[in-house]
Amino acid sequence: MKKIEVITRTFKLDDVKAALTELGIKGMTVTEVKGFGRQGGHKEVYRGAEYQVDFVPKVKIELVVQDERVPELVNAVRDAAFTGNVGDGKIFVSPMDEVVRIRTGETGDEAI
Amino acid sequence: MNATDNAFILICSALVMFMTPGLALFYGGLVRNKNVLSTVMHSFALLGLASIVWAVVGYSLSFGTDIGGLIGGLDFAFLNNVGPGVENSPAGNLPHLTFMIFQCMFAVITPALISGAFAERIKFSGFMIFSALWIILVYAPMCHWVWGGGWMGEMGALDFAGGAVVHMSSAAAALACAMLLGKRKGHGREAFIPHNLPMTILGAGILWFGWFGFNAGSALAADGLAANAFVTTHMATAAGLLSWIAAEWVHGGKATTLGAASGAVAGLVAITPAAGFVTPMPAIIIGLGAGVICYGGIMLKNRFGYDDALDVVGIHGVGGTWGALATGIFASIGAEGLLAGNALQLWVQFVSVVATWVFCFVMTVIIFKVVNAMVGMRATDEDEVRGLDVSQHSETGYQI
O-UMP-tyrosine occurs at which residues (chain A) (predicted)? Predict the structure, then answer.
C-alpha cells in the first residue's frame, strides 16, 4: 500500500477529486494548508507599505491506494492539477504499513 | 429663532455624532485583532468623556465672553446661561442649546482622531486623563481662536468647518504623541497588517455620511451656503478617492480598498476649511490634490521614523494643511483668495497654519509629560504583546 499526498492550488481541488473518483477512488481526506515552495509567498500593500506574506493557502489531499495503482493515479492527479505556472504543487508517494477500517476491523488492501 | 434652521442643525448634530463610531470602525479595522476593542474604545469612550467635559467647562472656554482674543470666559460653565432660547447664542437664528450641542460633537471627534497615532500601545487610564486635559487646554482655545471671537478669526483666517480646529490640531497632537510614546514593539520587523478592512471601509463610509452634517451644518442655517458646502464636500471626497487610487496604481501597480477609503477621508479633511468658501469645481481640484498629497504624506513617517500607527499626520495633518492653504487660494464665496486677486488671504492662512501646528504640538507635549508623570502613558511590554483588549479591558473582540 502507498499513501499519496497531493499539495496543490485550492481552485484545483474539484478537478483532482473528479479525476480520482472517475478512476474508482472511493475516499480521500482534504485539508486546507498553508506553505510555500519555489514561488515564495506574495506581497500585500497597505497604505504604501509592502509586506511579504510567506505562506500561501493550498489544499492537501491524502489517499491510500494499492501499490499497483500508484502510477495511474499520480498521472491523473498531475493532469488535473496542472496549470504550468509556479505554485502548482507537489505529489508525495510514501509507503504505508497498515490500514484498519474501524467499523469492520478489516486490514490491509481490504480496508482501503 | 428660525425653526427650519433649528431642525437642520439638530439633524446635522446627529450626523456629526455618528462620525465618531464611524471613526471607531475606520480605526478598529486597521489594527491587529488583539487591539480592536481598545481602538474602538478610544473613540467611543470620548462620546462620554468629551461631552461631559464640554458641558462642564469646554463650551464656555470656547464660546464664553472673549478674554484678550485668547480664551472664552466662564459665563457658560456648567451650561449656565445656555438655554432653549436664542439669548446669548452665538448664532441668533438657533437656540443656544442647539449651537452648543452641534459644537459638542466636534469636540468629541477631534480628540478621537488623535487616537490613531497611539493605537496599540497606550494605557487606557493615561488616554482618558490626557484627552480630558487636551480638550480643555488645546481644543477649547483653538475653537475660541477660530470661531469664538479669538485672534485667529479676527485676523481673517478662513476655517469653515475645522481645518485648523479639528484636523491640524489633532494631527499636531498625534505627531507629538507618536514621537513621545515611541514605536510599537516590533515596529519595522513585524508586519502590522489591518485585521478587518471591510470594517475600515464601512467606517470610511459612515465618516463620509456624517461629514455632510459637519460641513453643511457649519453654515449654521438651512440655506444655500449649506447646499454649497454639502456639494463641495461630496465632490472633493469623490475626487480624493479617485486621485489616491490613481496615485497608488501608478506607484504600486494596484488600486487598493484601503487606498479608496483613505483617499475619501483625505478629500473630506481637505475640503473642511474650504467647504463654504469655494465653488464645486475648485472643490474637485482640492480633492484631487488631497488624494495625491496625502498619499505622499503617509510616506513621511517612514522617512522620519515615527510610528503614527494609523496615519493621522499623513492624512489629517497634511490634508488639513493643504485644505487651509487651498482655501486661501480658491476662496470666492464670502471671501476672496489668491485667484480672486487677494494674495493677502493666502498669507493669513499660512500664519494660521503655522500658529496651529506650533501651539497644538507644544501644548500636547506638555500635557503628555504631565500625564505620563501622573499615571504613565505607555502600556507595559507584556500588556502590549498580550494586546490592549485583554490587558486594558479584560475582553477580546473575537471568539474564534
Answer: 51
CA distance B171 to B135: 14
- d(Cα B304, Cα B321) in Å, to the nearest integer? 19
Written as one letter, the residue type at B158 is L
Length of chain B: 400
CB contact at 8 A, B50 and B39:
no
Chain centroid to Cα A9, Å, comes to 9
Local structure of residue B70 (DSSP, 8 states): T
pLDDT of B287 above 90: yes
The answer to whether A54 faces chain B, any CB pair under 8 Å, is no
How far is it, in rounded angstroms, from Cα B387 to Cα B225? 46
- pTM of structure: 0.88
Q: How far is B354 from chain A (nearest CA, A)?
A: 27
Q: Which CATH architecture describes the domain B3-393?
A: Orthogonal Bundle (1.10)
Mean pLDDT of the residues in chain B? 97
Q: Strand locations in chain B, DSSP E? A: 66-67, 71-72
Domain extents in chain B = 3-393
B343 at A interface, C-beta within 8 A: no
**Composition of chain B by helix, strand, coil, percent to 5:** 70, 0, 25
pLDDT, position B312: 97
State phi, psi for A49 to the nearest 5 degrees.
-95, 130
- Which architecture characterizes domain A2-111 according to CATH? 2-Layer Sandwich (3.30)
Q: What is the pLDDT of residue B142?
A: 98
User: What does DSSP say about strands A42-46 and A2-8: parallel, antiparallel, or unpaired?
Assistant: unpaired
Q: Does B302 touch chain A (CB under 8 A)?
A: yes
Average pLDDT, stretch B182-192? 89
Angle at alpha carbon of residue B106, lines to B260 and B279, rounded to 5°: 60
Whether B192 and B309 have beta carbons less than 8 Å apart is answered as yes
Can you spell out the DSSP letters for B347-369?
HHHHHHHHHHHHHHHHHHHHHHH
- Residue type, position B29, single letter: G
